[in-house]
Amino acid sequence: MAGCDITEILKTLPHRYPFLLVDRVTDIKEGERIVGIKNVTMNEPFFQGHFPDRPIMPGVLILEAMAQVGGVLAFKSFTATSRPVVYLTGVENARFRKPVVPGDQLRFEIDVLKKRPPFWKMQGRAFVGDELACEAELTAMVTEEKAMTR
Length: 150
Prior knowledge:
This protein is α+β, with helices and mostly antiparallel strands. The chain has helices at 6-12, 59-77; strands at 2-4, 24-29, 33-39, 84-96, 105-116, 119-128, 131-144.
C-alpha cells in the first residue's frame, strides 16, 4: 500500500509541533510493516541545547520518532467503531549506532513481531542513507478511545 503525507499523519497522530517527529510515510502494509521519514533540520528546537557546538539529535527523540511511525502503523491497522489510541508501553534492546545530525534524513523501518490485542511488539530500525543509526524493540497498547475515557 502507498504511504501518506503530513496531512494524513496529522489526522492519525495526536502529536503537534514541536513534538510531531514524522514527516512522511512512504510505504505501509497494514498489520505488518511501515516505512516513515523524518527530515532533521537545524531548526529543531532541541539543537539549541543538544549540543550547541556539535548538534546531535537526542537518542530519546530518535526512539520517539520511531514509536510515532509505529503508532501510524498500529492506528492504520486497527479496526474499531471509534478512534483508536496508541500508547507506547516499552522500549527494549535500544542501540544507537551513528549520530544523527542536521541535514540527515532518518528512514524508519518498523516490522510487527507479534500482536496479542491490545498489545503489539515491533522491531524498529532507523537509517541515515544505508547506515543503521538506531534499532530497538517497541511495545505498544492499541485501544479504542472510548475505553480510555474517565
